[in-house]
Design a protein that fits this description.
Layout (H helix, E strand, L loop, with lengths): L2 H31 L3 H21 L4 H20 L3 H19 L5 H9 L15 H22 L5 H20 L5 H20 L2
């Protein structure tokens, strides 16, 4: 087998795995939206496992990390709706950590917006779901918001301080990004709503 035959075969394998991950994820989201959270968990887990295979095959491909973060984010919601609270917290934290890894750590919202305004030689991840720092800051804050909600709902009073701080930080980041025109009102409303939910959940635990 020639080098080119081997490369083509590997490319087909990668594409096949990507197609499988997409199919599993789409099935899971369809089930979740139809109110079948428990049934959604298996195909969602299969999607995550398939993306992990892709990461092993292409460890330097940041797009796989972006996809993993997104699929973990959605998987946490499925576990939450299915009443599997401890797992939901763990997976929500993994999603947040993946977004942090993707963006290289916490990002200042004003710097992120300047990164979008001032042209760069190349985007953060060319052709990926995270084209610039503003998008990365928003995704990370959104994952932070979901983790705060999961902690408030499932982790008990011992996690109250962390839950509240995560929710506050997420709103602060989105407020700055919104003021600078980097996110829309719908996305901002989502993290504000989660903050309100966190506050109500924590108040009920007193």
């Amino acid at each position: 087998m020639s080098f080119f035959d081997s490369a083509a075969r590997n490319e087909r394998r990668l594409q096949r795995l990507q197609d499988q991950a997409n199919d599993y994820a789409n099935k899971a989201m369809t089930l979740l939206r139809s109110g079948q959270a428990v049934a959604a968990i298996k195909p969602s887990q299969q999607a995550i496992e398939t993306i992990l295979q892709l990461r092993q095959l292409e460890p330097d491909n940041r797009e796989h990390l972006a996809q993993l973060a997104g699929k973990l984010y959605n998987h946490a919601a499925m576990l939450d709706h299915a009443g599997r609270g401890a797992e939901a917290v763990t997976v929500a934290r993994r999603a947040y950590e993946c977004y942090l890894e993707l963006s290289g750590g916490e990002i200042n919202a004003q710097i992120a917006t300047l990164d979008r305004i001032i042209p760069r030689r190349a985007p953060l991840n060319a052709g990926s779901a995270v084209p610039d720092l503003a998008a990365a800051a928003a995704m990370t804050a959104d994952a932070k918001s979901r983790l705060g909600f999961m902690l408030a709902k499932w982790a008990g009073p011992s996690a109250a301080a962390e839950a509240r701080q995560l929710a506050v930080d997420a709103v602060d980041t989105y407020q700055q990004l919104k003021n600078l025109g980097a996110v829309d009102s719908e996305d901002f409303l989502r993290v504000v709503t989660r903050y309100d939910q966190v506050c109500r959940l924590l108040e009920a635990q007193k």
